């Protein structure tokens, strides 16, 4: 019996032993039959569009440089293998949600796993990771504007413009409204990388291409964390599931996502690296000539901003739900067009994007710091935490009952260890990169007006 079937049939470990976690009996948004604002309105394809926009956006832009660092063979193997594992871990998040319908975010999952301490730890980690991701989008938006305008204005202004646009687009209260933006986001990034691939193809081969690479551990693992970050959309999955009409259809959305993103990562990584070789730069849009680079960044702007909007929305929704859902009872402000509800929502969104803008501008080694955040959190949200979910859903008596169950037990235990290894290795590699950056005077000052465009 599959994990989804087990979840629907109540075969989680707690109920097998006659216990039910507090709050397991309610749905996160309550009865929406008479609600002004209805949240559970997304079909599976809209959820897939959101997942694709949130996952592929910035992740795809770093893949060619990963191939340049690791070599063609290792790059392909890692993209495929980590993609397959991300599919399995995403499926487990869906199974956990079906078993516990009230789980809306990682904080709720933490409450199920470890009580109030687990709620605060996982909830805090989710907020920190997503806010830093929002900062990454503000920073990338700034680079895009600087590239398009050739540094015609102060880069701080462009970062502020990117953050303000993201703030405005975050204001819709439901993900269903943002899902249409996600379609535009995917078309945007797909067109931009197509222009890049055509551009490097027309320019012809230059730079050497290697099948393997001899690297120090820190350099190699920093490239691996880029692939981990490219599959790091799992942190938002619980919120997407909560706003689907039928969460049981989540598997369709997940498979559509993983087939699309793995295929895109492979094609873009192989093609761009094959033509640019050792000269490959990151983000990938910078591998063409000046004119095409401006065009590609202009077309990519929607995906740079909209994927940030999704991260901001999920963060805001976590805080909003925390304020207006107490002991399983949803306040009327969650589903009504009340002044309290809207002012609170706008205030949360404004705070998130203000903080994202400040940390993106204040920290000179922000990209490396984002690597630290990814190592700390994406390693668990995308991989390790799903192994913990499996052990929670599977009663101890079943884990070694059959050869297949033994295989699954070993697999999910390995996933937990994998998450821990990625965290430790990624932290070491990211911190080493920060140290090397300071030694080489590679970091600009905070709130600098200097042109941040790629040369």
UniProtKB/TrEMBL annotation:
Show the InterPro entries listed in the entry.
AA_transpt_TM
- Give the stretches traversing the membrane: 47-66, 72-96, 121-144, 150-171, 178-200, 220-241, 253-275, 295-321, 342-363, 369-391, 411-431
Q: Can you give the residue ranges of the Amino acid transporter transmembrane domain?
A: 41-431
- Name its cellular compartments: Membrane
Residue numbers spanned by region Disordered: 1-27
What keywords is this UniProt entry annotated with? Membrane, Transmembrane, Transmembrane helix
Q: How does it sit in the membrane?
A: Multi-pass membrane protein
Q: Give the main localization category.
A: membrane
- What's the domain of life for this entry? Eukaryota
Quote the biased-composition stretches of kind Basic and acidic residues, using this chain's numbering.
Answer: 1-19
The text of the family note is: Belongs to the amino acid/polyamine transporter 2 family.
Q: What is this protein called?
A: Transmembrane amino acid transporter protein-domain-containing protein
Organism ancestry? Eukaryota, Fungi, Dikarya, Basidiomycota, Agaricomycotina
């Amino acid at each position: 019996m599959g994990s989804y079937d087990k979840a629907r049939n109540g075969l989680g470990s707690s109920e097998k032993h006659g216990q039910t976690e507090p709050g397991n009996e309610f749905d996160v948004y309550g009865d929406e039959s008479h609600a002004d604002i209805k949240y559970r309105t997304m079909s599976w394809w809209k959820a897939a569009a959101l997942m694709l926009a949130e996952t592929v956006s910035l992740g795809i832009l770093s893949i060619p440089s990963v191939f340049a660092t690791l070599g063609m063979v290792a790059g392909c193997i890692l993209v495929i293998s980590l993609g397959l594992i991300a599919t399995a871990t995403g499926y487990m998040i869906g199974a956990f949600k079906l078993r516990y319908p009230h789980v809306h975010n990682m904080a709720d999952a933490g409450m199920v796993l470890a009580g109030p301490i687990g709620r605060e730890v996982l909830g805090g980690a989710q907020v920190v990771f997503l806010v830093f991701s929002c900062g990454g989008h503000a920073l990338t938006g700034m680079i895009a504007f600087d590239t398009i305008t050739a540094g015609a204005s102060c880069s701080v202004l462009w970062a502020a413009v990117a953050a303000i646009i993201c703030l405005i687009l975050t204001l819709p209260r439901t993900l269903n409204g943002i899902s249409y933006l996600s379609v535009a986001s995917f078309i945007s990034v797909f067109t931009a990388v197509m222009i890049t691939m055509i551009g490097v193809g027309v320019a012809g081969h230059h730079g050497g291409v290697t099948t393997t690479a001899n690297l120090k551990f820190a350099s190699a693992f920093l490239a691996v964390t880029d692939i981990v970050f490219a599959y790091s959309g799992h942190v938002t999955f619980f919120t997407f599931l909560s706003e689907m009409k039928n969460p049981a259809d989540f598997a369709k959305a997940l498979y559509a996502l993983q087939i699309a993103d793995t295929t895109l990562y492979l094609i873009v990584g192989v093609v761009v690296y094959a033509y640019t070789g050792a000269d490959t730069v990151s983000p990938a849009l910078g591998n063409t000539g000046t004119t095409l680079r401006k065009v590609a960044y202009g077309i990519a702007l929607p995906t740079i901003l909209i994927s940030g909007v999704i991260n901001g929305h999920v963060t805001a929704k976590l805080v909003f739900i925390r304020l207006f859902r107490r002991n399983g009872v949803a306040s009327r402000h969650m589903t009504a067009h009340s002044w309290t509800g809207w002012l609170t929502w706008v205030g949360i969104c404004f705070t998130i994007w203000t903080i994202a803008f400040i940390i993106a501008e204040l920290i000179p080694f922000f990209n490396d710091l984002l690597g630290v955040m990814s190592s700390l959190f994406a390693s668990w949200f995308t991989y390790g935490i799903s192994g913990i979910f499996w052990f929670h859903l599977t009663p101890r008596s079943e884990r070694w009952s059959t050869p297949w169950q033994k295989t699954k037990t070993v697999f999910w235990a390995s996933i937990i260890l994998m998450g821990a290894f990625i965290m430790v290795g990624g932290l070491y590699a990211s911190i080493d990169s920060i140290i090397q950056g300071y030694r080489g005077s590679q970091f600009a000052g905070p709130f600098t007006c200097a042109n941040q465009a790629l040369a």
